[in-house]
What does this fold into?
Amino acid sequence: MSDKENTPALRLDDLEYKGLKLWQYPSLYCFTSDAVLLANLSKVKRGDIVADFGTGSGIISILIAAKTNAGKIYALEKQSIMCDLARKNAEYNNLSDRIQVVEGDISDADRLLGKESVNVVVCNPPYFRKGSGAERGSEEIALSRHESSCDLKGIIESASLVLKWGGALYMVHKVERMAEAIGYMQSAALEVKNVTLVYPKADKAADVFIVEARKKGASGMKLKSLVVYNDDGTMTDEAKKLYSKE
It folds into this structure.
């Protein structure tokens, strides 16, 4: 069987913003709303150098490139098949001049990108610890959902290494791992500035949080909340504004 016959089928999804579209492998791992929320809550200034840790299909890199004046975005990804997909998506959306896909492990980020070389790191990491629960599905799905060679502590340490003084890490993760993540950030000279608790609905418990941490930043943290859906299933006004769909 040829490599072409082994390649999973692709699907083209509309991102509902400035005509952007994204190719995905439905049989592998598709992006979730968590990635979109993270991209929209990340503060990127004109000319900033951004590192997108574990880019997957490139969804976060593409949204940041389209919605900000970032200078360069390094889309770091371990899996070759996803690197090829991220390059395809950057090219399809005419963003190849600003998005550079880098194949490699997050644990090697300082070697691949350079120490203290970026202004912003964004990361939607695997939520589950290595060996926790059943790692179902393909190897690609398992790597997207479960920590592998670089765990949560390693991701945060790598982010600190590549960030310039005052640079920011933006990360989304499960609420049950928030204390763990903040502890690792403090140990890595990343001062937590903002934490946004994300509630699916007002009467539901927060599922994930999005954190902003500054390298060697001043102490002082603000806690925020975001409710995504109304009781009738429609998106809240705050979420609509955040998504800024056309």
In short: The chain is about 30% helix and 30% strand. Strands lie at 11-14, 21-24, 49-53, 72-77, 99-103, 118-123, 163-174, 190-201, 208-215, 222-229. The chain has one domain: 3-190. The longest strand covers residues 163-174.
